[in-house]
Amino acid sequence: xxxxxLAYLLLTGLIACNGTTDKNxxxxxxxxxxxxxxxxxxxxxxxxxxxxxxxPSPFDMFKHIGLINTSSATHKITDSAxxxxxxxxxTRTYNGAIGVDTSRTAVRNITEVVSEMGxxxxxxxxxxxxxxxxxxxxxxxxxxxxxxxxxxQLLDSNIDFFAGGxxxxxxxxxxxxxxxxxxxxxxxxxxxxxxxxxxxxxxRKYGYVLADAGMPTMLEGRGGFLPDATALAIxxxxxxxxxxxxxxxxxxxDWAGHANDEAYLLAEMRDFEEAIRVALDFAEKDGNTLVxxxxxxxxxxxxxxxxxxxxxxxxxxxxxxxxxxxGHSATLIPxxxxxxxAEQFTGIYKHSEIFHKMVRSAGMDEPVPDAAAAD
Length: 375
Ligand code: MG
Ligand code: ZN
Prior knowledge:
Oligomer: single chain
Structural class: alpha/beta
Distance between the termini: 44 Å
CATH topology: Alkaline Phosphatase, subunit A
Helix content: 25-40%
Number of domains: 1
Bound molecules: magnesium ion, zinc ion
């Protein structure tokens, strides 16, 4: 009897060891993660890089590609809040939710996880910094429209750097509080004029809020805000050799899709690509930076169609962007990964898994709450 148990233990022990050895391809752990979200950026939007963009496309740099299902817990087609929350926390939730699950309970987000490891964290967006996508990375509120509360939570969060629009949620509030003053009392250096300033110092927190609501569109002359803010965030968050997690959002790709506006979409995509180039340049030099580029969903049902010919038929050598909806679509969205840990991101999977892959790649193990959720 004893011998049988011993033999069994030995055997299972050996099998366990074997299993471990097989899987023991030393995982690569990046010490910096740049997570870039093209809001509403489906494969057609990415494809414009190859027909309307500069060559070579920055997407050429990525060798590890995935396809992502972004359905929320309540809808086949997600909104940016539910998807942002899934990306930031690994938990699928109801459309409209920011950092809370379907029972409206706060769930831990990646900036909270990596802050415990001593990493700096930042968010950059071309919407207000309190808009659904960036908010999902630091706030916990029942609905995305609670932007004044989200702004308050930003200053109480672990975020060390933020840039985008949204002044009115800080200094034109229904409670008359001047949150910019509060921010400075909490140690932030706040700038509401522009990105130019002194070189970032280690261990300082920075907030750039440069428009009342969303930032101007590219067609209105936003200029280099997104790539410049990305570069400034990287410089600030890595000052003193620190590890960091940075979320960068091309927010208005989505707004162009809602507007079914081809020129707007192309301009916002070219701008987002500039920000990707900035991230990849840094990652290439740094060697320890994982860059993940994806979307929260597709917007507009955009297609790269042949322009209708003058005498009927289609001109297969002239591409026009057409749209099938003024809302979001259910199409799988692409994901691109570069750097240490990038190989984890290939395959077809749910957006909520991206959080777990990033957290694991950073060397942390988090429980997988979404695995228990009903499918
Ligand atoms: Mg967004
Ligand atoms: Zn949208």
